Amino acid sequence: MIYFYKTKNNTVIAVESTFFLNKEDSKKLAWLLSYAELINKETVDGRFKGPRKEIITPWSTNAVEITRNVGINGILRMEEFTEITDQSEDYDYMLQQIYKGLSQDIFLMDKQPDPVIDIKDIDEYNQKEGLALSDDEINYLNSVSKAIGRPLTDSEVYGFAQVNSEHCRHKIFNGTFIIDGKEMKSSLFGMIKKTSNVNPNKIVSAYKDNCSFVSGPEVEQFAPATQDKSDYFEVKNI
Fold first, then answer.
1. Does 146 reside within a domain?
2. Number of domains in the chain
């Protein structure tokens, strides 16, 4: 069962529950939602912008946890929807969708798996999907397809493009450059790293595990003398 509450900001909050809410729980919910008004209908007319049904928002996760903390049981999901009047209003396609009315099935996951697509022309698929595969990589994939005796699927080609992308493997930035027949002494990444190698200053770690950090100044920490039991507070330098 999904209950709809209209807030003072004229948004609608959909509350999915496994039980029928009694008066006490409904009153608690209204209080939690800043005294939102319960809409005594199973559907709400209008055009709304809200989170995609496939994505449970962090707001919903926190809201559901709060309902449990105040003694309301059975709440599964809570999401906020904004009514829109402009047909061309912008929204985030990755996170949101447009709803032509709010009903009892707004959270129903009814999408079926997409069919597997055999890629018969890898070069054409590369251009269509913007995979940035090189000629060598396309030739390699064609040879694999020939060796296994079948076309590669869309997920196979897409996955190969991802794991072999510049972002993942840094083929260009870590590659060897030959200019006018002469091999360069350093890669592009090597040139970037040279700055910190020559002037490390307070760098503790760089270019490792997608993170870097530097040593900071000494500061005073006000904390318990021991952390595993009750103790006096003390000030110490860290």
1. yes
2. 2
pLDDT bucket at 184, cuts 50 / 70 / 90: very high
Distance between CA atoms of residues 167 and 160, nearest Å: 13
Other beta carbons within 10 Å of 145: 18
At residue 96 the predicted structure's pLDDT band, cuts being 50, 70 and 90, is: very high
| CATH number of the domain enclosing 144 | 1.10.8
Domain around 149: 118-169
Beta bridge mates, 12: 6, 81
pLDDT confidence of residue 94: 92
Residues 6 or more apart whose Cβ sits within 8 Å of residue 174: 187, 188, 189
Please indicate, yes or no, if residue 76 is contained in any of the structural domains: yes
The last residue of one of the domains, among 169, 195, 228, is: 169
DSSP string, 151-169: PEEHHHHHHHHHHTSHHHH
Tens of pLDDT, residues 112-153: 889 999 999 999 999 999 999 999 999 999 999 999 999 999
Mutual orientation of helices 154-163 and 122-129 as an angle, nearest 10°? 60
Is 31 found in the same domain as 66?
Answer: yes
